[in-house]
């Protein structure tokens, strides 16, 4: 970000040139999609799955660069991120309650394994050190066109699926036994929902970084649940707040010359704090 005092004219000029347009649009779309999908994550009380999956996506990106540099194989970072995210999601979708340890312990192990692997791989990729750092810590300023297109396509697909299967997903979430009695494929709906989350998390992590992706998937949804009791309004609120955090966080970072990912997460946290304050003063709708 620029070190001199930024102006609206510079932001508008950069938008017109496409320098700032792609990252702002990417943050807006990723925040909207993850805000919506995050509601189902928070309602399941499995928020750290998002953290583990985002770390897995970051590890996939690091692995792709490592293979390109040291083995000469042309592996797409986006495809590698999606592959690792889906692999971790598949593991989490297994009946982990049969294990002698809690699901939280499995998530913790997966999170630490993905994070440490990303750091070790990044240490061996000197040519891409800045890029790996941006992915791990959410300090990326610019978004590649291919990453923006991936976020747009995957987010649209995930939201379209949830829009079509909304009633079934909600029924399976709130009353799985009743859904089974109605012969709904509860297991399949649950797995498909997690796959949607994993896909959006993986491409958004590649584009924006781990920190803002985790923030978008948790904070707007929490704010929506604090503000409203009806699922429809919760989803709309979480989507709007996620989009605002994604786009607004970039603008804040531009004017204050701060890391983009951290600002996006901070704006999401500030919106949650505002909702919490309003909720403490006004009865929930």
What do you see in this structure?
This protein has 285 residues and is an all-alpha fold. It has a single domain, classed as ABC transporter involved in vitamin B12 uptake, BtuC (Orthogonal Bundle). It is 80% helix and 0% strand. The protein is built from 13 helices and no strands. Helix 8 packs across helix 10 and helix 11 crosses helix 12. The longest helix is centred in the C-terminal third of the chain and has 26 residues. The radius of gyration is 19 Å and the shape is globular. The model has no long low-confidence stretch (mean pLDDT 83).
Features:
285 residues; mainly alpha; ABC transporter involved in vitamin B12 uptake, BtuC
Strand pairing plus helix content: what structural class? mainly alpha
Radius of gyration: 19 Å
Helix content: over 70%
Strand content: under 5%
The CATH architecture comes to: Orthogonal Bundle
Give the overall form.
globular
How far is the first residue's CA from the last residue's CA? 40 Å
Mean pLDDT reading = 83
**Largest β sheet strand count, sense and barrel closure:** none
């Amino acid at each position: 970000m620029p070190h001199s005092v930024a102006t609206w004219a510079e932001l508008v000029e950069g938008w017109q040139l496409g320098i700032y347009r792609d990252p702002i649009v990417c943050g807006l779309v990723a925040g909207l999609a993850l805000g919506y999908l995050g509601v189902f994550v928070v309602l399941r009380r499995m928020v750290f799955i998002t953290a583990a999956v985002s770390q897995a996506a970051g590890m996939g990106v690091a692995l792709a660069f490592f293979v390109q540099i040291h083995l000469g194989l042309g592996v797409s970072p986006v495809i590698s991120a999606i592959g690792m995210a889906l692999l971790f999601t598949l593991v989490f979708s297994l009946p982990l309650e049969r294990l002698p340890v809690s699901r939280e312990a499995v998530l913790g192990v997966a999170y630490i394994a993905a994070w440490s692997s990303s750091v070790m791989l990044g240490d061996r990729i000197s040519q891409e050190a800045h890029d790996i750092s941006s992915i791990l810590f959410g300090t990326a300023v610019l978004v590649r066109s291919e990453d923006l297109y991936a976020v747009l396509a995957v987010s649209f697909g995930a939201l379209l699926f949830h829009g079509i299967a909304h009633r079934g997903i909600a029924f399976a979430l709130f009353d799985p036994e009743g859904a089974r009695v109605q012969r709904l494929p509860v297991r399949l709906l649950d797995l498909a929902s997690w796959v949607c989350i994993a896909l959006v998390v993986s491409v958004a992590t590649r584009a924006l970084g781990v920190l803002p992706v985790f923030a978008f998937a948790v904070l707007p949804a929490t704010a929506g649940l604090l503000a409203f009791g009806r699922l429809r309004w919760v989803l709309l609120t979480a989507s709007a707040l996620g989009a605002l955090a994604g786009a607004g966080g970039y603008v804040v970072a531009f004017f204050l010359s701060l890391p983009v990912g951290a600002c996006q997460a901070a704006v999401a946290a500030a919106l949650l704090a505002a909702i919490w304050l309003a909720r403490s003063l006004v009865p929930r709708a």
